[in-house]
């Protein structure tokens, strides 16, 4: 800043010097505000880019999910058309170990025997199902 009074300056020049000092301060404030606004704009542009990228990814995932759903529906329709008169069956199997033991060879094999039993159970149930129906109503 210029001193308020310089030796040898006319009063008009001193007034103009004060105005220049004031305008210089305003200009510095404007430049600082511009820098702040540019930083905010940069942040907003980055957020905008991030959001656009996210939207693009979500749209792609949504399209893939829709495509998969359409394929699954088509497969269900094919299955329904292949066997329209065959009702869909539900088999519920309850294994109760009271008094029923697995074959001793399977027990001796430990975990591997358990896996063999797990593989064998569905085929046994398919060929020799035991159906017990009870009325559970009070």
Short description:
This protein has 138 residues and is mainly alpha-helical. It contains 3 helices and no strands. It has 2 domains: 85 residues; 43 residues, no CATH class.
Task: Describe the protein.
With 138 residues, the chain is mainly α. The chain folds into two domains: 1-85; 89-131, no CATH class. Helix content is 68%, strand content 0%. It has three helices and no strands. The chain has helices at residues 11-82, 104-108, 111-127. The chain is rod-shaped. The mean pLDDT is 81.
Itemize the secondary structure elements and their pairings.
Layout: H1 11-82, H2 104-108, H3 111-127
Largest sheet at a glance? Answer: none
Mean pLDDT equals 81
The CA-CA distance between the termini, in Å, is 98 Å
Radius of gyration, CA atoms, in whole angstroms: 42 Å
User: Which structural category do the helix and sheet elements fall into?
Assistant: mainly alpha
Helix content: 55-70%
Count of alpha/pi helices: 3
Low-confidence stretches: none
- H/E element sequence: HHH
Main attributes of the structure:
rod-shaped; 138 residues; 0% strand
């Amino acid at each position: 800043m210029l001193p308020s009074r310089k030796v040898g300056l006319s009063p008009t020049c001193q007034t103009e010097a004060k105005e220049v000092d004031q305008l210089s301060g305003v200009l510095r404030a404007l430049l600082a505000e511009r820098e702040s606004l540019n930083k905010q704009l940069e942040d907003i542009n980055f957020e905008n880019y991030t959001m656009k990228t996210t939207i693009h990814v979500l749209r792609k995932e949504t399209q893939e999910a829709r495509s998969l759903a359409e394929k699954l529906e088509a497969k269900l329709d094919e299955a329904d058309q292949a066997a329209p008169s065959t009702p869909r069956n539900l088999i519920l199997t309850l294994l109760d170990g009271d008094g029923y033991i697995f074959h001793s060879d399977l027990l001796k094999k430990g975990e591997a025997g358990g896996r063999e039993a797990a593989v064998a159970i569905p085929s046994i149930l398919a060929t020799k199902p035991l159906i017990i129906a009870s009325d559970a109503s009070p």
